[in-house]
Automatic annotation (TrEMBL), chain A:
<keyword id="KW-0406">Ion transport</keyword>
<keyword id="KW-1133">Transmembrane helix</keyword>
<dbReference type="Pfam" id="PF00654">
    <property type="entry name" value="Voltage_CLC"/>
</dbReference>
<feature type="transmembrane region" description="Helical">
    <location>
        <begin position="193"/>
        <end position="216"/>
    </location>
</feature>
<dbReference type="GO" id="GO:0062158">
    <property type="term" value="F:chloride:proton antiporter activity"/>
</dbReference>
<feature type="transmembrane region" description="Helical">
    <location>
        <begin position="399"/>
        <end position="428"/>
    </location>
</feature>
<keyword id="KW-0472">Membrane</keyword>
<dbReference type="GO" id="GO:0005765">
    <property type="term" value="C:lysosomal membrane"/>
</dbReference>
<protein>
    <recommendedName>
        <fullName>Chloride channel protein</fullName>
    </recommendedName>
</protein>
UniProtKB/TrEMBL annotation, chain B:
<feature type="signal peptide">
    <location>
        <begin position="1"/>
        <end position="23"/>
    </location>
</feature>
<keyword id="KW-0472">Membrane</keyword>
<dbReference type="InterPro" id="IPR019172">
    <property type="entry name" value="Osteopetrosis-assoc_TM_1"/>
</dbReference>
<keyword id="KW-1133">Transmembrane helix</keyword>
<keyword id="KW-0732">Signal</keyword>
<feature type="transmembrane region" description="Helical">
    <location>
        <begin position="250"/>
        <end position="272"/>
    </location>
</feature>
<dbReference type="GO" id="GO:0005829">
    <property type="term" value="C:cytosol"/>
</dbReference>
<protein>
    <submittedName>
        <fullName>Osteoclastogenesis associated transmembrane protein 1</fullName>
    </submittedName>
</protein>
<keyword id="KW-0812">Transmembrane</keyword>
Length: 702, 301
């Protein structure tokens, strides 16, 4: 969990006194510098991923295509199938081994973990350099391995890791300390930078800077101020510009800034694709199609099965390999049995057309959807002329890809779910467009319906409203579609929420993370703090024996992190954190040694910052028997003014305080200022509004 | 003079007056009227004046000199019109099957020549540029537009790939291709009657050779070659039905069902053999005296 609330102890006040005005100005400037640096690095990482995927995927597709062409006439196409399956599962095996054995936290798209981080819950190891490296390599392997995944979701995680690393000015993994940015080595600052990093990641992934800012806003809502928004916007803009610039260099037309994001939806020209007023009810109806909720439902049960039975790393790797092989064989079989042949459009020069059993000059149309990277397929579905796709082909493709994508999400690989959902939605959207055109003989451009279908499907799966609308509008480059997309996403969210939550929220819940939503559940005003708080509380005296402190910290049954500091008899005078106590024990700041400490320097805030973020566990601190009898004075180091509530405060009020201020511990006092309880995140996150009223869930130990 | 002389003068006057009246009519003609059928691109001029060269009338001399088009330019214009009509006369019959490059390249060459003369910067004998007077004097820019269309067609057909420099003739590659094509077509003709399977067998090698030649020319194709290849392919695949049949369906189905079977086995075995990972629940420490817990349902997940 993040200690966002600043501990305003005496050391902090001293530091502030010492810092001059120019010091504060320098801090502000360095914040801007860091945000710019975050943007540049995120853009570069995205560029790297894109270039590597493109190059290696080209080799793979060329090899398979040549093999198929060789064997089409003489027979032996099953060898091509085996080759495709082998290539797929070997890439996925590498990616999956990296994730399952080296860093399991890098699995999935990373968006749930970043959502938790912005909410204030730190899942261990989520913003480490090792995670970043494994995530980038993992996503490259998964995409080349032909899985039904996208590479955009992991960008958000990568951006956040870059931000967390750069803002600290040092790397604990590489054991290098650049001695800069020391002021920012605390949770408050780091979290702000991670918001900027997540926004930069979204912006690099979709070419949507404003969408990125809104994503950070939607997730880490409450700690907002104007300067932070400005800095986050700056980071996003720099990120998309860097990506654009370097991609244009790699495509050999420097300065042609036409690739603002990893996914490029292509230009939607307003003259051709206007929509009329009577189409809006149609769009809303498309939003109400519950395929997204179905996806979530199936994935939920699959994930539960996986958590229970497939939890050993080697099993996870094997599962990923099997999925890759099956993806290849299903795609191949569908291409093989498809009779749909179309002549090649002149715009598709860069794809890999497969002729297979078609007449000369015509190419298998199922292959143009399956035998391609998903981004290109999405683009084709949006922009191809009406009549390019056969309804039967599209229908089969939708069903197959839906089940493949649902099966793939949740594997121990780094992969996102944005692109598969867009592809599924675009396919059935286009189908709706074709059906409408044949039904009512109105001129319905199927590309427009493909876009609406994609928005509906994605909204139904992830249930993000505000940020997703803006991301899609920016990605299509046309504000005209803002209204339909917004209506469709709203409809999808309302209809889907009736059944269950969004995919990321489901996975967060399955990992037993105490996630706090935007507001307390409705109808909970009658619940008071007395019923919610934890009691009795482990308190420490202001002058406490070292032995007691060590015992309290070593108590494994209760893993507390914050301890109210009391003076007799149990009157609150401050709050001290476990991390601070450990630093004090390490530096042996005992009262008895105060005399000899005059020769050594006094403990400063810098010492706390140096130990951040990986404080040593209590087991590694060695305290001798004599030292256990010493006393420790906590007055200087505790937070003298922690936030408090009384026992009668209602749950929504406490919730608001927690969420708005980013608290981790809230002390509950009675009318005589005595400590009676402590409210932590876990206490608040249990309460949900379920089908039968207010429910209390049990959280599992992680 | 005698009566003969007077008659001549009278006849001369009548001719001029008639010409003057027809001149007025000519300028108010609608399109489609009085158009000579084989010269569509010709400017509207009264038919009485329509000869190979334009004779400036003495009446025209009453117009200011700036608006007058010099003889030289008018001559260039007429050459252009003649060549244009010849080119179009060659193009349209070559529309299907497409042979616009190989049949009409010389026509295009001469048309280009005529246009270059008009649009060049050189000054004519009377020290004026024909480009300004013929091409830039009105907003229609007829000469320019007409030539651009023809030039566009030429570029779109990629005819430069088939024709040698300076429009001398068809280049070697294309002739070679056409020879092969003729061979294949004659092979088709030989076996056309009866069962097509014989045709498929016997003509397969020459058809394959043609295909390979075509793929080697992939980047430098003109529309003639492209269309000829297309037609041949349609003949081969659709009319004679010589495409490759789907063999070994069984093998593909077998391999893919095996692949689909593996995950089922995997999940079943992991279900049966792995021990289920139990979750330890955290029990909250609460003050126990409050009974309002009745309103809250305990959900054990």
């Amino acid at each position: 969990h993040l200690d966002y609330d600043n501990s305003e102890n005496q050391l902090f006040l001293e530091e502030e006194r010492r810092m001059s005005f120019t010091g504060f100005r320098c801090l502000e400037i360095s914040r801007w510098l860091i945000c710019g640096l975050i943007g540049v690095l995120t853009g570069l990482i995205a560029c790297f991923i894109d270039i590597v995927v493109e190059k290696v995927a080209r080799y793979k597709y060329e090899a398979i295509k040549q093999n198929i062409e060789r064997f089409t006439e003489v027979g032996g196409l099953s060898i091509s199938l085996i080759l495709w399956a082998v290539l797929n599962f070997s890439f996925v095996m590498v990616g999956s081994i990296l994730v399952a054995f080296f860093e399991p936290v890098a699995a999935g798209s990373g968006i749930p973990q970043i959502k938790c981080y912005l909410n204030g819950v730190k899942i261990p190891r989520v913003v480490r350099l090792k995670t970043l490296v494994i995530k980038v390599c993992g996503v490259i392997c998964s995409v080349i391995g032909g899985l039904a995944v996208g590479k955009e979701g992991p960008m958000i995680h990568s951006g956040a890791v870059v931000a967390a690393g750069v803002s600290q000015g040092r790397s604990t993994t590489l054991k290098k300390d650049l001695m800069i940015f020391e002021y920012f080595r605390r949770d408050t600052e780091k979290r702000d930078f991670v918001s900027a990093g997540a926004a930069a990641g979204v912006s690099a992934a979709f070419g949507a800077p404003v969408g990125g800012v809104l994503f950070s806003l939607e997730e880490g809502a409450s700690f907002w101020n104007q300067m932070l928004t400005w800095r986050i916007f700056f980071a996003s803009m720099i990120s998309t510009f860097t990506l654009n610039f370097f991609l244009s260099i790699s495509h050999n037309n420097t300065g042609d800034l036409s690739n603002p994001g990893l996914i490029n939806f292509g230009r939607f020209e307003s003259e051709n694709l206007n929509y009329n007023l009577y189409e809006i009810p149609l769009f809303i109806a498309m939003g109400a199609i519950v395929l997204g909720a179905l996806f979530n439902f199936l994935n939920y049960w699959l994930t539960i099965f996986r958590i229970r039975y497939v939890h050993r790393p080697c099993l996870q790797v094997m599962e990923a390999m099997l999925v890759a092989a099956v993806t290849a064989s299903v795609s191949f079989t569908m291409i093989y049995f498809s009779n749909d042949c179309q002549p090649l459009d002149s715009e598709h020069a860069e794809e890999y057309p497969l002729q297979l059993f078609c007449a000369d000059g015509e190419y298998n149309s199922m292959a143009t959807t399956f035998f391609n990277t998903p981004e290109k397929s999405v683009r084709s579905l949006f922009h191809n002329q009406p009549g390019t796709y056969n309804p039967l082909t599209l229908g089969l493709f939708t069903i197959t890809y839906f089940f493949l994508a649902c099966w793939t999400y949740g594997l121990a690989v780094s992969a996102g779910v944005f692109i598969p959902s867009l592809l599924i939605g675009a396919a059935w959207g286009r189908l709706c467009g074709i059906w409408l055109a044949s039904l009512a003989s109105i001129w319905a451009d199927p590309g427009k319906y493909a876009l609406i279908g994609a928005a509906a499907q994605l909204g139904g799966i992830v249930r993000m409203t505000l940020s997703l609308t803006v991301i899609l509008v920016e990605a299509t480059g046309n504000v005209t579609y803002g209204l339909p997309i917004m209506l469709v996403l709203l409809t999808a969210k309302i209809v889907g929420d009736y059944f269950q939550e969004g995919l990321y929220d489901i996975h967060i819940k399955l990992q037993s993370v105490p996630f706090l939503h935007w507001e307390a559940p409705a109808t909970s005003h009658w619940l008071t703090t007395r019923e919610v708080m934890s009691s009795p509380v482990t308190c420490l005296n202001r002058i406490e024996k070292v032995g007691t402190i060590v015992d309290v910290l070593s108590n494994t049954s209760t893993n507390h992190n914050g301890f109210p500091v009391v003076v007799q008899p149990s009157k609150l005078c401050g709050l001290i954190l476990r991390s601070q106590l450990i630093v004090l024990l390490k530096h042996k700041v005992f009262v008895e040694l105060a005399g000899s400490r005059l020769t050594r320097r006094k403990l400063q805030l810098k010492d706390f910052r140096d130990a951040y973020p990986r404080f040593p566990p209590i087991q590694s601190i060695h305290v001798s028997q004599d030292e256990r009898e010493c006393l420790m004075d906590l007055t200087e180091f505790m937070n003298p003014t922690p936030y408090t509530v009384t026992q009668e405060t209602s749950l929504p009020r406490v919730f608001k305080l927690f969420r708005a201020l980013g608290l981790r511990h809230l002390v509950v006092i009675d009318d005589a200022n005595r400590v009676v309880g402590l409210v932590t995140r876990k206490d608040l996150a249990r309460y949900h509004l379920g089908k039968h009223g207010l429910e209390e869930l049990h959280l599992a130990q992680t | 003079m005698s009566l003969r002389g007077n008659c001549l003068i009278f006849v001369f006057f009548v001719i001029n007056i008639c010409a003057f009246v027809n001149c007025d009519e000519g300028t108010s003609l609608d399109s489609g009227d009085q158009v000579r059928p084989d010269s569509p691109g010709l400017p509207r001029v009264p038919s009485s004046l329509l000869v190979d060269s334009f004779v400036p009338l003495s009446l025209m001399s009453s117009f200011p000199e700036d608006l007058e088009i010099s003889n030289h330019c008018l001559e260039l214009l007429s050459i252009f019109s003649q060549r244009y009509s010849d080119y179009v006369k060659c193009l349209v019959p070559a529309a299907r099957p497409v042979r616009v490059c190989t049949k009409c390249y010389s026509g295009y060459g001469s048309l280009l020549n005529a246009y270059m003369n008009i649009s060049s910067d050189q000054m004519g004998p009377s020290n004026e540029s024909c480009r300004d007077s013929l091409m830039r004097s009105d907003r229609l820019m007829l000469v320019y537009v007409l030539f651009s269309n023809m030039q566009d067609l030429w570029e779109k057909s990629n005819c430069d790939f088939c024709i040698t420099e300076k429009f001398q003739g068809v280049n070697n590659e294309t002739t070679h291709f056409m020879k092969n094509l003729n061979q294949t077509l004659s092979c088709f003709e030989k076996y056309q009657q009866g069962n097509h399977t014989e045709l498929c067998k016997n003509c397969k090698s020459s058809y394959k050779g043609l295909n390979e030649l075509y793929s080697s020319m992939e980047k430098t194709l003109c529309i003639d070659v492209e269309d000829a290849m297309n037609m041949t392919r349609i003949l081969w695949s659709k009319n004679f039905n010589c495409s490759m049949p789907r063999g070994e369906t069984v093998a593909v189905i077998a391999v893919s069902s095996f692949m689909l079977f593996l995950p089922i086995i995997f999940y079943l075995s992991s279900f049966l053999h792995s021990e289920q990972k139990k979750r330890k629940l955290i029990h909250p420490k609460r003050m126990k005296s409050y009974s309002s817990l009745m309103n809250i349902q305990d959900k054990r997940s």
